[in-house]
Write a structure and sequence with these properties.
This protein has a two-stranded antiparallel ribbon. It has a single domain, classed as Cupredoxins -  blue copper proteins (Immunoglobulin-like, Sandwich), CATH 2.60.40.420. Strand 1 and strand 2 form a beta hairpin. The protein has 124 residues and is mainly alpha-helical. The longest helix has 27 residues. Helix 1 packs antiparallel against helix 5. The chain contains five helices and two strands, in the order H-H-E-E-H-H-H.
Length: 124
C-alpha cells in the first residue's frame, strides 16, 4: 500500500494537534490553570524578553534558560523539583525561593502563575 506524501503530512499534522491538545488538557488539570490563557500571560509579562519559549511569538531570547520541553525536566530554577506548586511559587515570587536569582519578580498573580505553569507544562 502506498500513501501519498501529502496525506502523510496531513495525518502527522492532525496527530501533532491532537497530542498538543491532550498535553494542554493534562497541564491544565495538574496546575488548575489554562494553558491558552497562559500563553497570553507569558506575552503580557514579557517572559520572551529573557527566555526562548516555543509557541510564543518573539520569545527567542538567550538571557534566561530556554524553556523548550520544560514540562519534561526534573528540576526548575536550578534546584526545585519540577512540581506544579513549585513552579507556581517560582513564577509568583522567585526571590522568595532564591534571593540571589537574576529572575525578576514580575508581579505575577496566582491565577496568571497557574495559567503560565499550565502552558509551560504543555511543553513536553
Amino acid at each position: 500500500m502506498r500513501i501519498s506524501w501529502s496525506l502523510f503530512l496531513a495525518f502527522a499534522a492532525l496527530l501533532h494537534v491532537g497530542c498538543s491538545a491532550s498535553a494542554k488538557q493534562a497541564a491544565n488539570a495538574m496546575t488548575n490553570g489554562d494553558a491558552n490563557r497562559g500563553a497570553s500571560a507569558i506575552a503580557h509579562y514579557g517572559c520572551g524578553s529573557c527566555h526562548t519559549i516555543p509557541g510564543i511569538s518573539g520569545a527567542h531570547a538567550l538571557v534566561g534558560p530556554d524553556l523548550s520541553r520544560i514540562g519534561s525536566r526534573i528540576y526548575i530554577a536550578g534546584s526545585l523539583d519540577n512540581q506544579p506548586l513549585n513552579m507556581i511559587r517560582w513564577l509568583e515570587d522567585p526571590h522568595a525561593i532564591n534571593p540571589k536569582t537574576v529572575m525578576p519578580t514580575m508581579g505575577v498573580t496566582e491565577r496568571d502563575a497557574r495559567d503560565i505553569a499550565a502552558y509551560l507544562y504543555s511543553l513536553k
